[in-house]
Amino acid sequence: MENENEDNLPLGIALSWGLVKPPQRGPKREMSIEKIVKAAMEIADQEGLAAVSMSRVASSLGFTTMSLYRYIPSKDDLLLLMMDAACDMGGIPNEDGQDLNWREKMRIYFRASVDIMREHPWFTDIPISGVPVTPKNLEIVDLGLWTTRDLPLNDYEKMSIVLLLSSYARSCGILMKDMDLAIKAGKSPSTFSGIDYSSALKKLVTPERYPHLHPILMSGAYTDEIEGGNPVGDDFEFGLERILDGIEHYVTSKKNYPGGK
């Protein structure tokens, strides 16, 4: 394996950009970095990140572990490549979405970011180790900046808004994928509303011990028992809209910009 990179990028990052020549030995036609990463992702999607090892991936492809190391030198490099491959937001409109206002663009970006974590529950099990530098991960940054393109903000403000949106998406994505996994394991969806425990909680949560929670619980808001349904709708979407309201307030207070909902 020969590194063509002249900028001293770490090997895993260089691999993601195709800056490393394929090995001269080993199963050249049957094996590739793309096939290895795809096989690893399939294992992680089905069994979790802990099930991914170089030997397990090699076995799933019908090759020896040493064969894999000729293409991807370490498990850390494999995880980095898996993360990058998962960051495929090709479905988000870019230039074709010119007629969308900035709020709708940010909604699209948020939902697509959350979908990555729901489709690949292992994604957030890999710690963030630095600024995005791999190609598909940078596409996410680019698409985030697409949402701010028409806003009268400087580059630092735009990057901060992308960080705000992506951070909220990551938080919501972790919660949603945890709920998905729990339901898949047999938990009832009503477990997450708390309605299954409503009767018991109303006995256990006293106003003396929980003076602020008690009235909320008794009103039915804590366990989604409000007659006519939750008036704020989906909690995650509610939070997103408040973030967008904050961005709109910031923009309009900074410059006389009409915004748009």
Per-chain topology:
Elements: E1 2-3, H1 11-16, E2 20-21, H2 33-47, H3 54-61, H4 65-69, H5 75-86, H6 102-119, H7 135-146, H8 155-184, H9 190-193, H10 198-204, H11 213-219, H12 235-254
Antiparallel strand pairs: 1-2
GO biological process, one term: negative regulation of DNA-templated transcription
Domain HTH tetR-type: 30-90
Keywords: DNA-binding, Transcription, Transcription regulation
Q: Can you name the CATH architecture of the largest domain?
A: Orthogonal Bundle
The major sheet is characterized as: 2 strands, antiparallel
Radius of gyration: 23 Å
Q: Return residue spans where pLDDT drops below 50 for at least 5 consecutive residues.
A: none
Silhouette: flat
What order do the strands of the largest sheet run in, or round the barrel if closed? Answer: 1-2
Termini separation: 52 Å
Assigned CATH class of the largest domain: Mainly Alpha
Q: Number of domains in the coordinates? A: 3
Number of strands: 2
What name does CATH use for the topology of the largest domain?
Answer: Tetracycline Repressor, domain 2
Helix content: 55-70%
Mean pLDDT: 88
CATH superfamily grouping of the largest domain: Tetracycline Repressor, domain 2
**SSE pattern, N- to C-terminal:** EHEHHHHHHHHHHH
Please tally the helical runs, counting DSSP H or I stretches of 4 or more residues: 12
The helix/strand class is mainly alpha
Strand content: under 5%
